[in-house]
Amino acid sequence: MEPLHSLLDRFEAARRPGGFGYAHHHHHDGGSHDHHLVIGAIIHGDEVGSLPAVVSLIEALNTGTKHYGGRLTIFLGNPEASAADRRFLDADLNRVFIDEPPPCHEGHRARELKPMLDAADVFVDLHQTILDTDRAFYIFPFDEPGWQWARAIGAASTWVTRAPTASFSSGTCCSDEYVRLRGKPGLTLELGPKGFHLHAEQRATTALDKLLAVSDAVATGPNTLASIASDAPELDFVHTTWSQPFDNPRMRLIDGLTNFQQVTEGQQLSAADTPPIHAPHSGLLLFPKYPGYSSDGTAIEPRPGEIARIVQPLSGHPSDVWARELNS
Q: Cα–Cα distance between 306 and 292 in angstroms, integer?
């Protein structure tokens, strides 16, 4: 795979700045309609797998080998953390899109990115998981526009969703949540495990090509987003049914747990001679955490807010399960 520094150099060489005061972004205006797509990449610095796809897309639009009639903004969220091979430098960028971001590198970056997110008609944030996963998946709260875009794009068949009013983490705000709070669709797509690999590049390329095609079709008619979505396969909806707070610094999981691994009720998830953690019911494990540990056996701070969660299939379609919230 092409090295990180080469991809960042290609991005800088190809990018055409728009009217936003942020260095690491590209803006395209196809001149046929005003629908504005915004794409986020490497908001987490170690999740670099989407870079080959976004750089190639920019180059193809510049040379005319690919076409999009609307407006498109692509930004790199935290290339400084990428260069350091870290998830972030001071604070998790994807938690600080709050009213008053903290006075640090990522807080300053959130302030720079907000104008682009404010201008988005649709925002798609490309991420990767820390550990292995057997699939790509969407993860964001349910709303009808987001559902239609996710289904129409078809980049994943699984959607880890939650009630429309439920935040991912109390007191924080993710980039996609920031956009949804402004009444526009904000989607997060997990491409697979972090790092450069062919599956991530292919999934990102397919998702971005379809996103542009759907936007063109909806903006120029006669197709509607609803009709395009209805012609695509329905998604499989799962939701979190249990999460274990990381409330003891000596908590540690057994080695080898991965995303979407089947677990059974009562299964031990904790390593030997550490605070016990058992699965309260069967389901699929998601986001198991393996932070670094000090010589005294305590997790190195800042430790994550949770150490693992379990997801299960939703009892029905989200539009029925959460009908009251959607109609309120």
A: 14
Which pLDDT belongs to residue 325?
Answer: 74
Domain boundary among 201, 234, 267: 234
How far apart are the C-alpha atoms of 276 and 253, rounded to whole Å?
9
Tell me, what DSSP letter sits at residue 187?
E
One domain for residues 31 and 111: yes
Task: Using the Cα atoms of residue 305, residue 309, residue 314 and residue 315 in order, give the sign of their dihedral.
Answer: negative
Q: Which DSSP string do the residues of 62-114 spell out, in sequence order?
A: HHTSS--SSEEEEEES-HHHHHTTSS-SSS-GGGB-SSS--SSHHHHHHHHHH
d(CA 90, CA 88): 6
- How far apart CA 93 and CA 108 sit, in angstroms, is 10
Domain extent, residue 258, equals 240-328
Which CATH number covers residue 256? 2.40.50
Residue 283 is predicted with a pLDDT of 98
CA 310 to chain centroid, in Å, comes to: 19
Give CB contacts under 8 A, 24+ apart, made by 266-274. Answer: 269/244, 269/308, 274/250
pLDDT in tens, 199-258: 999 999 999 999 999 999 999 988 999 999 999 999 999 999 999 999 999 999 999 999
- Same-domain status, 45 and 76: yes
Q: Which residues contact 99 (CB under 8 A, 6 or more apart)?
A: none
Shared domain for 175 and 86, answered yes or no, is yes
Q: How many domains does the chain have?
A: 2
Q: Is the pTM of this model over 0.85?
A: yes
CA distance 76 to 126: 10
Give the pLDDT confidence score for residue 75 in this predicted structure.
98
Q: In this predicted structure, what is the pLDDT of residue 172? A: 86
What CATH code is carried by the domain that includes residue 128? 3.40.630.10
Give the pairing of strands 236-245 and 306-313.
antiparallel
Residue 137 structure tokens = 């998946």
